[in-house]
Amino acid sequence: MFGIIISVIVLITMGYLILKNYKPQVVLAAASIFLMMCGVWLGFGGVLDPAKSSGYLLSL
């Protein structure tokens, strides 16, 4: 339930900022990063699960 409330607040804030002629790319990027951080914080999973990682960067 808390995730839905956060999403609605972010959605309303995004709409307000876009209507106030802020750059949509910046608004959408910031909102998406914020929602990803909230998702990790609320326990919906990490950005990249270590068990599913290919280990590509470790082999360089």
Automatic annotation (TrEMBL):
<keyword id="KW-1003">Cell membrane</keyword>
<keyword id="KW-0812">Transmembrane</keyword>
<dbReference type="GO" id="GO:0005886">
    <property type="term" value="C:plasma membrane"/>
</dbReference>
<dbReference type="InterPro" id="IPR004669">
    <property type="entry name" value="C4_dicarb_anaerob_car"/>
</dbReference>
<keyword id="KW-1133">Transmembrane helix</keyword>
<keyword id="KW-0472">Membrane</keyword>
<dbReference type="Pfam" id="PF03606">
    <property type="entry name" value="DcuC"/>
</dbReference>
<feature type="transmembrane region" description="Helical">
    <location>
        <begin position="5"/>
        <end position="22"/>
    </location>
</feature>
<dbReference type="InterPro" id="IPR018385">
    <property type="entry name" value="C4_dicarb_anaerob_car-like"/>
</dbReference>
<protein>
    <submittedName>
        <fullName>C4-dicarboxylate transporter</fullName>
    </submittedName>
</protein>
<feature type="transmembrane region" description="Helical">
    <location>
        <begin position="28"/>
        <end position="48"/>
    </location>
</feature>
<keyword id="KW-0813">Transport</keyword>
<dbReference type="GO" id="GO:0015556">
    <property type="term" value="F:C4-dicarboxylate transmembrane transporter activity"/>
</dbReference>
<comment type="similarity">
    <text>Belongs to the DcuC/DcuD transporter (TC 2.A.61) family.</text>
</comment>
